[in-house]
Structure formats: C-alpha cells, structure tokens
Amino acid sequence: PTPPYLKWAESLHSLLDDQDGIHLFRTFLKQEDCADVLDFWFACSGFRKQDTGEGNEEKKLKLAKAIYKKYILDSNGIVSRQIKPATKSFIKDCVMKLHIDPAMFDQAQTEIQAVMEENTYPLFLKSDIYLEYT
Amino acid sequence: IDSEDDLLQECISSAMPKKK
Predict the structure, then answer these.
(1) If both were cysteines, with which of A8, A14, A111, A134 could A21 make a disulfide (CB 3.0 to 4.6 Å apart)?
(2) Is the CB of A42 inside 8 Å of chain B's CB atoms?
C-alpha cells in the first residue's frame, strides 16, 4: 500500500484528509507564521457542518461572529489579506444583518484554498519538514 | 457558556478527519 506521506503529495485534499498530514502541514505553516490560513479553512468546513437543528441559531451566530472577528476583521491578518474585498464585505454583511447561512464562508474558503494550492502546499512538499519526514 | 475561542476550536476540530 502507498505510505500516507506519498499520498500527501498527490493533492492538498489528500493531505488535509489525514491527521498526521494536517499536523505536519500545520507545523510547517506555523514556522512560516501562517497557521491561521489552515485553521480558517477548517473553521469554514466546520461551520458548514454545524447542526441545522432549531435552537442552534444562537450558537451559529456566535460562531460566525467569532470566525469573522478572528480571521477577517483585522485587514492585516494573514487570512484577511488573501480574501477579496467583495468576499469580505459579503461576510461582514451577513454577520451585521444576522443573516447566518451555512454557505456564508464558502467563497472565502475557496479563495484561501486556492492560495494554499498555489503557494504554501507546493512549498510544504519541498520543505525540510516534509523531506525529513519522508 | 462557551467562550468564542472554545467555540472556534470546537468548530475547527469538528471539521478534522477522525483517526483511521
């Protein structure tokens, strides 16, 4: 069978589908001072998966606000800098108008994913951390 | 009451793959 670390080199998704892969990738991103990018990506996935049951609205609103505050509000933050202004205003609008939708972070997640695929993921595959691991 | 950080951490963990 293919060892997991070879699978990680196939695609970003194979890497993010494996606990050890995520752990190593996060260690690399932390070195580069951009672990927030990965945390944001998972926060978006987690938000989409939130229970849609009644009575959960308050929790979802609180969570949407927390994601907005931590990653998007500060325009100098590593995540905020890599999301399009239109996408950021859309999210801001949703939060301000209390219009909480499971897909409200989808576009931002797509943009951040593209940055990872073009930038940090290829760098990770060439990094000492990954090469030493393999 | 969950603090915002706890809520965020819980959300991030919920999206991670489970141990195979």
Answers:
(1) A8
(2) yes
Distance from CA of A31 to the nearest CA of B (A): 20
Is there a contact between A112 and A82 (Cβ–Cβ < 8 Å)?
Answer: yes
Residue-wise burial string across A66-91, b where 16 or more C-beta atoms lie within 10 A, e elsewhere = bbbebbbeeeebbbbebbeeebbebb
Inter-residue contact A105 to A79 (CB < 8 Å)? no
**Chain B residues near residue A100 by CB distance under 8 angstroms:** none
Do A18 and A117 meet the contact criterion of CB atoms below 8 Å apart?
no
Mean pLDDT of the A55-84 span: 93
For position A53, what pLDDT does the model report?
A: 66
